[in-house]
Design brief:
Layout lengths: L4 E7 L2 E8 L6 H4 L7 E7 L2 H11 L5 E7 L8 H14 L6 E6 L1 H13 L5 E6 L2 H7 L4 E6 L2 E8 L4 E5 L8 H18 L1 H9 L1 H5 L3 H21 L14 H11 L6 H18 L5 H13 L11 H9 L10 E5 L5 E5 L3 H8 L1
Parallel strand pairs: 2-9, 3-4, 3-5, 5-6, 6-9
Antiparallel strand pairs: 1-2, 7-8, 10-11
Helix pairs in contact: 3-4, 5-6, 5-9, 6-7, 6-11, 10-11, 10-13, 11-12, 11-14, 13-14
This protein binds nicotinamide-adenine-dinucleotide and glycine.
The site of nicotinamide-adenine-dinucleotide (NAD) has 30 residues, from helix 2, helix 4, helix 5, strand 8 and helix 6.
Length: 357
């Protein structure tokens, strides 16, 4: 394979690599260096395992290893499935120096990472993202967790991976709807903090929609660099990192009320960004023209921009459970236009309700 693009997440003394390139799953000599102990559990799902598990297992010769294949889907990002990871670790005899390899999209990565954070109070894990969304967002930065019926990601931990191995060749098998959902998180980086990147995305929207490899690799690298920089400055989301939730408070409410898996996470984020932009325009913070530019780019990338008809009061109830809220007041990421997002405390529920109506 060609030399991968390498980025680094630097968290004070701690740091870990993000490798991005086609064929990385077969480059075991590289990623094995991130494994410190003798025991390895690969966690994947029933869609990804038949495609890629054998290639990962081929690189694990010499380790005591096993694989756990979870059922596919957001509805399985649960405490019950996390319990199955613990059972597999126990059966493997995994000690404190064991490593979990998370092979799959954001669901597998979040759940396996959470299990790694909990097992014996924290063991190593390596992210092997196979969706665009996981490559540009969920595999980087150490947020792990699972859903409850009451809300998305309500149980979790900050637990950084030892490395991120993003084999871009795996994207060839990703269904188009999932691919587009990942593009929503790519647009997010331009929308919140990088106007030149947003303009680059507008110029390369057709190439990205067609999965043109150079444009795609550049978009993944810029997105990861953006996320790595924000996480390095604010690992535990005391401030700036919350900006990465632009569109997510609305989006999580759409996912929770609409039923997990109905809208894909990235689709919900796309609609959520448009709702946040609309609210920001109504509050006089951003122009309608910028909101239209955002919606137009998302639409060109094949993403939905209109919210489905759902009960607004149930969405508001879901938004009240958002992790960003403080003192019972809504905290949202609002928008000053392309490239500029900000944290807004105490947003009036009536203003939010008017956008949901
Ligand atoms: P996903 O993990 O459900 O994967 C999407 C679908 O694609 C699944 O059916 C999966 O089996 C399939 N798939 C994965 N890789 C494939 C491949 N290479 N070929 C064919 N099929 C493949 O969804 P996702 O969009 O990757 O992740 C969404 C999850 O990530 C949500 O739970 C969300 O909350 C979470 N998330 C977490 C963070 C974070 O910082 N931790 C950030 C963003 C999103
Ligand atoms: N996806 C939001 C974050 O990692 O902070």
């Amino acid at each position: 394979m060609n030399t991968p693009r390498t980025l680094e997440v630097a968290l004070g003394e701690r740091r870990y690599p993000i490798w991005i390139g086609a064929g990385l799953l077969d480059d075991a000599a590289r990623w094995r260096a991130a494994i410190r102990g003798r025991h390895v559990l690969v966690v994947s799902n029933s869609t990804v395992a038949p495609l890629y598990l054998a290639r990962v297992e081929a690189g694990l010769e010499g380790f005591k290893h096993a694989a756990l294949v979870l059922p596919d889907g957001e509805t399985h990002k649960t405490l019950a499935e996390t319990g199955n990871v613990f059972a597999a670790l126990a059966q493997l005899g995994a000690s404190r120096d064991a490593t979990i390899l998370a092979l799959g999209g954001g669901v597998v990565g979040d759940l396996a990472g959470f299990a790694a954070a909990c097992w014996m109070r924290g063991i190593d894990f390596v992210q092997m993202p196979t969706t665009l969304l996981a490559m540009v967002d969920s595999s980087v930065g150490g947020k792990t967790g699972v859903n409850l019926p009451e809300g998305k990601n309500l149980v979790g931990a900050f637990h950084q991976p030892r490395a991120v191995v993003a084999d871009t060749a795996t994207l060839a098998t990703l269904p188009v709807r999932e691919y587009r959902a990942g593009l929503a998180e790519v647009v997010k980086y331009g929308a919140i903090a990088d106007a030149p990147f947003f303009a680059w995305l507008e110029a390369h929207a057709d190439a990205l929609a067609a999965r043109e490899p150079d444009a795609l690799a550049a978009a993944i690298e810029t997105s990861c660099a953006s996320k790595a920089a924000i996480v390095a400055r604010d690992e535990h989301e005391h401030g700036e990192r919350a900006l990465l939730n632009f569109g997510h408070t609305f989006g999580h409410a759409l996912e929770t009320v609409g039923g997990y898996g109905t809208l894909l996470h990235g689709e919900a984020v796309a609609i959520g960004m448009v709702l946040a932009a609309t609210l920001s325009a109504r509050l006089g913070l951003a122009s309608d023209a910028d909101g239209e530019r955002l919606a137009a780019l998302l639409a060109r990338l094949g993403l939905p921009t209109q919210a489905p008809r759902l009960d607004a009061s149930r969405q508001l109830a879901a938004m009240r459970l958002d992790k960003k809220n403080l003192g019972g007041r809504l905290r949202l990421i609002l928008w000053r236009g392309i490239g500029r997002a900000e944290i807004a405390d105490g947003v009036e529920e009536s203003a939010v309700a008017s956008v949901l109506a």
